[in-house]
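cron nightly-structures :: item 1 of 1
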Amino acid sequence: MALFNREETRKRHKSHKETFEKRKVKSVIPNNLPAVNDSLFHPFQTSEEYKSLTPSQKKAIDLFLKGENLFITGEAGTGKSHVTKVIFDLCQFYKVAAAKTSSTGVSAFNIGGQTLHSWAGLGLADEPLNNLISKLRKNKKAIDRIVKTKVLFIDEISMVKADLLEKFDGVMRYYRGSAAPFGGVQLVMVGDMLQLSPVWRGSERKDWCFKSLSWEGAEIKTVILREKMRQNAETPFAKLLSNLRVGKMDGIEILEDRIDAKFPDDGIMPVRVLCKNVDVDQFNFSKLNAIKNPSRKFYSHDNGSPHHIEQFNKNCPAAAVIELKVGAQVILLANLDVKQGFVNGSVGIVEGFTSAGIEVRFKTGVCLVPEFKWEIKEQSVGFDGKTIFKSVASREQFPLKLAYALTVHRVQGLTLDRAYVDVGEAFAEGMLYVALSRVRDIESLSIAPFPKSALRVSRECLEFYKKLEE
């Protein structure tokens, strides 16, 4: 008999509800937050950083400080990443052991954390729970993280499958020696179920994480971030994006004028947003080959085990080998100078190669791009309770990538100055919405005609959000 089959899990959720009720009112942050109308506010609530947050972001902070398990969600560009960073920084300030994890390797690189699989020592997590628990006994580092962590962040939660969440719940309960949901760790889960979905294979159970018994048992408080930061919420384009996210076509006629729309002829082409990697690679190399200038190849300097190098090759934004020419269009993969506008997602043209770096002309000026270091970091908990990030592997490479085209998954989280969206081959729900929401306004957008099938959204996710709203 499995350690926790679904019926057994349901019974445990019910019988230990009282235990969970006692735990969840105790915040992991010292000096529990009083009631909102109390005159003795938590010090952070009087800070300028707190005052600068939107009302819904403040609500997320307040619930976290009360010890609630959180699901922070909302449309693209509503500041999910920012409020998550504020909560993590609070944990570090108060020396509360907090772990950064994500459902995908790419997003784990973006947040400077580990995948959920890696952090918990689950491997592919394709075995029964009993087997996972048995194998984990040899992974002392993962067990130490599981036992000592008080707050666990899971980014891109929408891509976590129900089966994985339940196995993870079982592992956490077992090694933390607690029947409370997830062993009593406080959860901060972040993402939008209406954007990117899990990748199910073969005959495996096809349930979203919110359909799992573990989600139900954790009594998660949801905060929907309302205020848009990427687009002006009152514009017809922003309203259209809100409609498309939930499968409505109201206002879609405004896209007709953007079909194959042209941009100023300043040498910078819009980034073509496509669905498949093979199409992106073919388009990028065809454009590069059309440039008559000689090409130069730049090789990364990698340090780490073969396993880590494989992770870099699969998930790192920068490739092991970059081939460029003067005149090639590239995207910047790191924040170099925010004030000058040289940020992750900026698109420009290569103007020259020097011993100090690569000269790239962006809309805001010319930047000498130096090499950048990406690191794979393992997390542990120090004696003082703070989370320690230890670099176990590194890649030094120029933070540039050919940017005539990118996939929908690669532009997730970016803000593009110009985009040409071609998602006629969308193979998953939400891809059209994700692609269109990468720009600040409709004038930054050009589109290819798309079939109605590109508008599809998950009915299960729609019902989930409908219940949340109610």
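cron nightly-structures :: done
The first strand starts at residue 70 and ends at 74.
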